[in-house]
Amino acid sequence: MPQETIRVGAAAIILCDGGIVLGIRKKAGNKGKRVFPGGKIHRGETAEAAMRREIREETGITNLLTVQSIGFVESLPSDDDETHRIIIVFLVCTQERPLSQPQSDLSDPRVFPLQELPENISPLCKKMLKLYNGEG
Predict the structure, then answer these.
(1) What is the pLDDT of residue 12?
(2) What average pLDDT does range 69-76 have in this prediction?
(3) Which residues contact 89 (CB under 8 A, 6 or more apart)?
(4) Are 4 and 22 contacting, i.e. CB atoms less than 8 angstroms apart?
(5) Which residue range(s) make up the domain with 117?
(6) How far apart are CA 136 and CA 123, in angstroms?
(7) What is the mean pLDDT of the chain?
(8) CA proximity to 87, closest of 25, 41, 55, 132
(9) Domain count along the chain
(10) 81: closest CA among 41, 47, 22, 31?
(11) Each residue of 23-61: pLDDT tens digit?
(12) Which of 12-16, 36-40, 75-79, 107-111 comes out lowest in average pLDDT?
């Protein structure tokens, strides 16, 4: 029987110029899919601090005008991924444009108009969008 792994993370739906920021995941677990900036919460780090760190590391954005926790989403272990993930979701606003960060787990972060979101969004990020839209 595989060892149980539960990961707690923080992610951000970043509103910018009338759209949202999505990047392409470079690592396993949704590799090649569009995702929101985010990642694991380190020991001793608050969820908001983790979210701010991940935004900075993955997009270069540092000036967040508003920050609001809007809930959480989770993904249960499956045949493809044995990890149980719990993600605290934040809604943030900024006027800064995202920039690719070479050492990041995220490539090509960019703003997508809400009416023109790409099709290759990860399942977990689709859950986050439902939460944002009041459907979750």
Answers:
(1) 98
(2) 93
(3) 10, 11, 12, 13, 69, 70, 71, 72, 73, 128, 131, 132
(4) no
(5) 5-132
(6) 13
(7) 92
(8) 41
(9) 1
(10) 31
(11) 999 987 788 999 999 999 999 999 999 999 999 999 999
(12) 75-79
Could you tell me the CA-to-CA distances from 55 to 39, 84, 103 in Å, in that order? 9, 22, 13
Closest CA to 35 of 128, 109, 125: 125
Buried b (16+ CB within 10 A) or exposed e, 78-107: eeeeeeebebbbbbbebebebeebeebbbe
CB atoms within 10 A of CB 2: 6
For residue 97, give the CATH number of its domain: 3.90.79.10
| C-alpha to C-alpha distance for 121 and 35, rounded to whole angstroms | 6
Report the alpha-carbon distance of residue 80 to residue 70 in Å, rounded: 28
Cα 120 to chain centroid, rounded = 14
Task: Report helix, strand or coil for 59.
Answer: helix
Q: Report residue 124 as tokens.
A: 């977990």
